[in-house]
Request: fold
Amino acid sequence: MSWSNYERSMKLAQQCRFYTTEGGKTPDEIKKAEKLLGVQFSKQYKDFCKNYGYLSFYGNEIFGIDPDNLEILEGNCVAYALNDRKVYELPRHYIPIYDYGDGTMAYMDYSALNKEEPRIVIMGYNGSKYHVIEITAEDFGDFVLGLVQDELDGCIIKIRIIKAYDGSLIS
Reply:
């Protein structure tokens, strides 16, 4: 858990297939999102919003902020959190950042700061309330680094399997 893991994750992400970012948000947009959510973003997430906006690579999407567009949930932690607070009574200290696509999502847990950074938890909704399934990372940087490393490792494995199967390498 460290700032260096956050920086490393952002640099390594650029090597992932289909790497895309939005280009960042203004300080006013970040403050507006914080006000709407009632939390002050951590140093890592604030930097992420400022410099990247959101991050997408090969089927993975790390949610950013769009405080001026609350109608579209996809990829927007502000809209997602506000919707889930209203509809499902999501506690205020959870901010969604990643959808696993299997009914669970990753959230920054601002009730459990670890050296001023929220831990990342995986949560599900059981029909009556949200419940924490597990702590998946000590902070935002560790979480993103894990996703990036899994993708980069997966690329190597997929290339080896393709090569072993038909004898050619597809890049």
Q: What stands out?
A: Strands lie at 20-21, 55-57, 60-62, 94-99, 104-114, 117-125, 130-137. The chain is about 40% helix and 25% strand. Helices lie at 3-13, 27-37, 43-51, 77-88, 140-166.
